[in-house]
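Q: Could you fold this chain for me?
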Amino acid sequence: MELIGSIIAVLPVQTGEGRNGTWKKQEYVIEYDQMAQFPKKMMFNLWGDKIDQFNIQQGQNVKVSFDIDCREWNGRWFNDIRAWRVEPAESAQPQYAAPAPYDMPPPPAAPAEPAQNSSFLNAPAGDETDDLPF
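A: Sure. Below is the predicted structure, expressed as structure tokens.
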């Protein structure tokens, strides 16, 4: 998946020891759908060498390619949005522009004019030839 937006937060690098050695992770918050009344935000992360490779800065407009995965830890489930490519997007338009809220359907067409030669329009006043019960 991909989206284009502006980096609004660069969180501190996290490190730790795992069964495969030392790991390094950094999280970022991107604001996208900036043309909407309420822009959306998403946090994604980079692992290992990709942190230095992409060198993401706050305020930068980027196009982020990412995968969404879910994992379980201690009986709870967590979503993980992991970026695999980040590139500058200075000239690109933000994706996922929302439609205008509460778009109204077009008004119905005006009713057709009644035919001028209908028999009820041409009937003389007081003509009792209709068979309506009232």
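A (continued): Residues 50-54 form the longest helix (5 residues).
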